[in-house]
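User: My collaborator sent over this chain with a note saying "see what the structure looks like." That's all I know about it. Can you take a look?
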Amino acid sequence: MKFCHEEIGQATRGMMKRRTLIQSAIATGTVATLSPSAWANETELNIIDTNVSLSRWPFRRLPLDDTQQLAAKLRKLGITTALAGSFEGILQRDISSVNDRLVSECAGFSELIPVGSINPNLHGWEDDLKQCIGDHAMRGIRLHPNYHGYELNNPRFLKLLNLAADAKLFVQIAAVFEDVRTQPDQLRVADVDLTPLIENHVGRIQILNWRPRGELVEKLASIPNIHFDVSRVDQTNGVAAMLKTIPESRVMFGTHAPFLIPEASLIRVHESDLPDSSLSLLMNKNAKTFLTG
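Assistant: Without extra context I'll predict from the sequence alone. Here is the result:
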């Protein structure tokens, strides 16, 4: 994927059209039912969603957990590129096969970019990483430290960060996947403790599904190679508040779909009433920069 200045200019102009469309859709309560043609007629900006997952969530069926339906919904909302991990990578131990299936599934949808799973607590994880780099030519990997049972100061994690940086892969860390209050009693998984990242950060890192709170936000925000998504930002003006602490060049749009409905993130962005320049960075430019390194 190549990006040029002309595309970025078109994206900025298109953001103004998209603002009008989102405002109208939310005002009339039709954000979930807009026709594909309505979006297509207004869209010059290609929204990049940095946080979707394919396959089935292990504990219940989700709306849009069929890839074809999910891709159709993303297109309907003007999302033309999505970084796709796999729900299977959370609990399955045969990570190589998980990534094979992910790549095969994404191959049928031009908007989906596969993001491989790696579990550094499994024997042979280095081979899984080599497969992501060599066999699948992936741009990045997604980690689930809480489900896989390691802290962010674990030597294997640090080795993984360095190997990924050497291979010019981005690393996504899912800080949260499901609120602990709704998890099954037999499998309660705490949120990832992100504190060790203050000392241990190498390469391009994006934190997914995190609600920025407390002093840790400011400390992580001061580290130039750590990026964030907006999928679990709450409150009406939550995205705007986030950008007061974290530089706007390091915050990217993400929906956490299909675990969350993708319209929710669009609504949160709209409610924050950002200027067009900030919207363009959030919805498109930052992710392009992150993807290309």
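A starting point for your reply to your collaborator: The radius of gyration is 18 Å.
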